[in-house]
Amino acid sequence: MTKAIVNRSYPDKKAIIAAKGDVTYTQLFRNIQQFALLFGNKGYAKVAIYAENSPAWIYAFYAALQNNCIAIPIDFLASAEDVAYIIDDIIMGFVGFLISLPFIGGIIFSAIGIGENTENTENMVKGIAGIIGSIIGLTVVVAILGWLYFALMESSKTQATLGKMALGLKVTDLEGNQISFARATGRYFGKIISGMIMYIGYILAGLTEKKQALHDIMASCLVVRKNEAVS
């Protein structure tokens, strides 16, 4: 879509019908360009869109694409903790990708070795072992990385991961105090149980009085607003 096409063909026709006022194609284009300038000046590679269904959501989405950014829509109805988890997942995904590169290189190197030594059983076995070892090594490193990220940050003075800090959340014990590394570790691995039972453990956060998921209950923890008093 170009400005020339918009203005010549249907400048005043409705592009978006919204409760707070309709938007013409000319207005749509102009607003997308304004958002695009904002994203372009910041040099973003990824843009998370956390907004209710509105014209602004459309402006942000197409502006992100125009700047060759990866648009990441986030459910507006998601809780603050859900959004924090999405942010943490994006961060961990990026870090995990960087860490995985040597292991991926090992897998490729081993696969090439197998292809070049199809008649040498010993070298083929070594190549297969190299691939399996790289996969196991990557799995272990990523698992340890996730555990240390959540456990260390939630037991630190900030009491929060980067995602929780962005949303103004922190993890406390039942009295509102900083939790230990051991308790943060228990909370982290408790998430496995919360997910194993068809994610019912997570659903409990919307049903319990103190908004505790199963892993919070198991570790005697709370997730609260940064300045919220625990009673």
Structure description:
Helix 5 (121-154) crosses helix 7. It is flat and about 75 Å long. 60% of the residues lie in helices and 10% in strands. It contains 9 helices and 6 strands; from the N terminus they run αββαβαβαααβαααβ. The protein has a domain at 3-73: Rossmann fold (3-Layer(aba) Sandwich), CATH 3.40.50.980. The chain has helices at residues 3-9, 25-42, 55-66, 80-116, 121-154, 162-166, 181-196, 200-203, 214-219; strands spanning 14-16, 23-24, 46-49, 70-73, 169-173, 221-225. The chain has 231 residues and is mainly alpha-helical. It starts with a helix and ends in a 6-residue tail after the last strand.
> What value does the Rg take, in angstroms?
24 Å
Helix content, binned percent: 55-70%
Order of helices and strands: HEEHEHEHHHEHHHE
The average pLDDT score comes to 89
Q: What are the main properties of this structure?
A:
231 residues, mainly alpha, Rossmann fold, two-stranded antiparallel ribbon, 9 helices, flat
